[in-house]
Queue: 3 jobs
Job 1
Amino acid sequence: MTIVRTSCFPRAAFLLPAVALLLATPAVTAAETTPDALHQALETKQRIEQRVASQLSRDSSAQHARPAAAAHGAHGTAAAPAHAAPTTALAHGEPAAGAHAAETDVWSRLLAGNRRFASGRTRVRAVMAQRAALVAGQHPEAVVLACADSRVSPELLFDQSLGDLFVVRAAGNVEDPIILGSMEYAVEHLHAKLIVVLGHGSCGAVKAALSGDEMPSPNLVALVDKIRPTVQRLNACFEGAELVERGAKANARHTAIEVMTNSKILREAVEKGHLKIVSGFYDLTTGLVTPLE
């Protein structure tokens, strides 16, 4: 049997545990292709790939750094000793200040999830295990007020899972006392940190408000009357798909303002820095969500 010295192959010292983990993972046979088995196999594969990619990246960085350090020492400045301690943050495996600031922001994480969705690289999740864990309670970080349109599912388009989002939906993503009460519950009792008002392309409620047509029922009249004052002025400047898109964006922005204006609880949460209210626009064609100013 040939013995390979890992000191001769620096990467091998790291890769061997990863390979061992892969070999120790039971194969998923046709008789065992349950959702949990598939999720476990995929998660194991992803962990191994992430560990290998991380190590290879560190090896590459070290190889580029060593020649520079040697050259610096050759010009009269002593090179740092091999055992020199790294900075405090890196020594404890923590990111340097600001390194992952964007990832700690709930809105940024949702937008990152949307990019995964739009590119077809959504995450694999052990939904059955998550469902069991959520029996005890929910702690969503974000509230999404979205249109009831069947093409606009917040959990999917933000690549989120069970328990991640508190979703409130109504045609035209409008607000009223019931919608506001739902959001107040999420912020006051569940401590959600973000409210997203999400408009979208080709919104039927916005189209109806822009059309000026008579609605066939009092309920539809109430819905359209909620949107029409915000969008009707756009008729003089735009037409077709651009008119509808601009109307949907204007409506989302207006609703975000109305949410804070008409709810004391939400307004005070914003003033205290406990809550952020934003608006966005979902493009049906690209799958991307664009933040609205």
Note: The first helix runs from residue 10 to 24.
Job 2
Amino acid sequence: MGRGGLFKREPRHLTQELLAAATAVLAFATDAGSVPIGPWPSVLGSREAFSPEVSAAVERIWIKPTLRRTVNGPPARVPLEVYAAFVDTPEVTAAAARFRNLGSYHVQAIDDDRYRGDDGGGARGVSQVLRRERQRRIIFSEGTHTGPFLGTISGSALTVLDLEQHGDRVNPTLTAYVHIEDRVAAALAQVLVASFGFLADRKLAEGLRVTAGVAEWAVEPSGGFCEWLAREPLPAARRHRIVAALPSCARARAQLGADASAGAR
């Protein structure tokens, strides 16, 4: 059956699948509205700083994105350094989210700047942090989404995440430039997003909601996060990134170690 027949028979499900595909490459990941559109995003600096493959992919997204969306994530009542620590360790955030039933993502760190992720709903991808500033992250992602109607759709995205501290809250703003490889899917997404853009925005905001939930759990005095972190099997460098932003967790880990030593005697 052709795609046209599927669209006529199941418009609601096809719409959701299309918009899920359009935002799938952003699931792992994180106000860029003032960024000017040109041959290369000036916020990244010189294109020679990146590999030819990454530079070509970023330029393709930047010049002719299939979709461009900006969403404001839920504010998180945490210090900026705490929120940023969870943005920079998405595998820790994903594990904590699964423990707290906030999400079903699985993320694996490849190195300090690259991650492989699976959202458990048909989306898989690899993300790379291209630029890291105190209140901004710029992330390049490539991924696929597999669904029952459209099969597997490939896409890439450039995501700009800005973090603003207002009082005791962090307000995140995410702007995404998405490029869908399949021409038919890209054309349909452009048509449908005008009417169903809220679905795409909800998907984009989902990662920010999870990050906020985990970060707020981490700063609860008796929430149990530090004990969970001490027991979770994580590489030492990744655990240290969180502990550096949460000194109370260093004390909790030391106490757990002391308790374990006492129990062994």
Note: The beta strands are 67-72, 106-109, 114-118, 123-133, 136-147, 151-166, 169-180.
Job 3
Amino acid sequence: MKRFIITLSVFLAAVLLLSGCGVNFSVGLNYSYDGTGYEKFEENKVKTFEGTVQKVDMDWIAGKISFVRGDTFSIVEKAVKGDYFPLYYKLEAGTLYIKWAEDGASSKLLNNRAKEITVTVTEEFGAVKLNNVSSRVDIDLYNADKIDIKTVSGGVGVKADTVKEVRFDGVSGGLDISAEITGAVDTNTVSGKITLTQKKDAAIQYKLNTVSGDVELRLPAGTAGYKAKISSVSGDFDSDFGQREYGDGSVSVDFNSVSADLKIAKAE
């Protein structure tokens, strides 16, 4: 039970972190960050970037976020609910920082607004850090060193050729990722569902913490093996491979839940 209390504390801390970054509004609060060096985005323009953009660090509140593959790195946004207001951005040492609105923008002005942003990435691009409230997120990348996402209620879908490291923190927003994952996976959710599809067998570690959001881990049918360590109050375990330990045990699965189930399936 101590582990579950710790896990819940992590979830609450993640929500507070989002609020502190200005990714949440309440009466009397403004959207705030250190706006030094940020530029105003031009409406109805596609902004392209010279040189190599290796990482995006984004705060977004409502609407839709899309990462798509292309030959030139660019961003474009549009209003999907309410009047348009511009994002602010800066490029620094290969990292593109994107903010939902101007530093100090009034929460009353931005309430009930939603925007859609599309980020076109190149093969050189390699990392996403995202703080999200309720936006739908769809990410399609060539390769990534790290994907680090915090979301409250917005669902997240990720496709990539390869990903070295995945970090996901969510409340009711879930994650569905399909990639050749070569490093570690660390997910923490309250009720969001997690679906992880491993495209190629690899001896990596999965740390899967959840309260009530079910987890499905899809491993290649020819996987060398895994070892599942499970701590749960009332959640169930099921596996297409038939047991908690299979083969050489080279894949480590550490699953902690209150009522959520874990399913280890054979990927199609």
Note: The longest strand covers residues 136-151.
